[in-house]
Design brief:
5 helices, globular
Length: 114
């Protein structure tokens, strides 16, 4: 984003700062852009608005990371996308991923038997 300075409008740890969000909303009056949900998932109430925003963001950005970035950018811990994912606490460990895949496979198997 041109005109957005790191440390003022863009956070060094990823995403936009409050000033960056305010600047974007001034430039785009109909925008509903909000700052990141940086609260740890364990502190968020399940099903709350913030928890839903966080999950939605994480899923969307994980898809973008997989489809729209090069392998080099995806592995780079200092890329903007990886910094943003860390800031939003988007960490799906291998154990959680395996559970998710298993749950999907079980649900597909159950559906196929009916």
């Amino acid at each position: 984003m041109k005109g957005y300075k790191i440390g003022v409008h863009k956070s060094r740890s990823g995403g936009l700062t409050k000033k960056g969000v305010a600047k974007y909303r001034r430039e785009n009056p109909s925008s509903k852009l909000q700052t990141a949900v940086t609260t740890k998932p364990s502190k968020l109430k399940p099903g709350s608005k913030a928890a839903k925003r966080r999950i939605s963001f994480c899923k969307r950005m994980k898809g973008m990371k997989a489809k729209l970035t090069s392998a080099k950018t995806a592995r780079d811990p200092n890329s903007r996308i990886n910094k943003a994912l860390r800031k939003w606490n988007c960490r799906w460990g291998e154990k959680n991923l395996k559970r998710l895949v298993f749950a999907v496979l079980v649900s597909v198997d159950i559906a196929m038997n009916y």
